[in-house]
Design a protein that fits this description.
The chain is of the alpha/beta class. The chain has helices at residues 14-26, 37-47, 63-70, 90-98, 111-124; strands spanning 6-10, 30-34, 51-55, 80-85, 103-106. The chain has one domain (6-119): Response regulator (Rossmann fold). The chain is built from five helices and five strands, in the order βαβαβαβαβα. The protein has a five-stranded parallel beta sheet, with helices on both faces.
Length: 125
Amino acid sequence: MGHVGSVLVVDDEPQVVTVLEITLRADGFQTFTAHDGIEALDQIRRHRPALMLLDVMMPRMDGWSVLERLREMPIGERPRVVMVSALASAADRSRASALGAQAYVPKPFDIDHLLQILHGLELAS
């Protein structure tokens, strides 16, 4: 299993990554970052984060593809996933859930709400 309290932040917008990284670190999480799905999969193999904040729309490999690839990994090696996306339809939410995401947070997100979700998933491990 990954370290307790480690989060991989995956988003192609550098300012989003920076804000999340600073906030999560201040909250006691160890953080790793990636800017597309291919980097994300590499970081998961290297660091085994416990949790992942995953954007949907990204270059090279999108969030949906990352979720599909995670399903091929042994369950103990997969991070628990919170999708963070500007796509907030019911269809997107149910697709995320069907692909194994634990939570779905629409952008623009409320950082305190996001932290609550992460702490809840951390406790559920």
